[in-house]
Amino acid sequence: MARSWLRARSDEAERMDDAAQGEAAFRSALRDLEFLNRISFGYRPTLRWLDRLVARTGVRSLSVLDVGAGGGDMLRRIDHWGRARGVAVALTGLDRSPAAAAAARAAGTPGAWITADLFDLPGDARYDVIVSALFTHHLPDADLVRFLRWMERHARHGWMINDLHRHAMPWIGLWLGTRLMRLDPMVVHDSTISVARAFTRRDWRRLTAEAGTPARIAWQLPFRWAICTEGKA
Q1: How deeply is 148 buried, as exposed, middle or buried, from its count of CB atoms within 10 A (0-12, 13-18, 19+)?
Q2: Is 95 a member of any domain?
């Protein structure tokens, strides 16, 4: 039953995507999302990819754009990563929600911030690397294909997507865990929808082929995918 239940991506809306959500509710949800990312090692795939890219290219400075940056927690981890490895990072967060910018500033997120739809950025905008985490499952397939092509054009050295795997086990785990830990109601509501909107390896193969973007598709524990280019010259 579970296999057929999650066979195709859901199009059910997440509350976090609702612009009517107030700033206080949004910030509360972001705090609990950061907690979930921390206990599930959700930052590790992106930071390991940055390690590989720096080792391959030899660069000692990087401009980084985080798309769908939320409260800036990934940018804060990348800032710490850069300091620990002696890599200068110029960080930019991008999120279309004004509440995200306010939450990121309140949390002390370093770098610049852009409140806009990513496709509204200037055509000549370029960054050394573009990353996103738990963002692509918010997009319908057609917009995701467009996003893959967009990153290929706008990233000098490479890009990396870090997102969920659609499967019954994480769905059940999040349904139980978010309730047992009494997390924010928006997180409780959205967590299982996020899994249902997420991707399988077959999805990623189809979508990257449609976009015409060569990419590495790698399984990440627990129940995540890393979709990335491994570094341009």
Answers
A1: buried
A2: yes
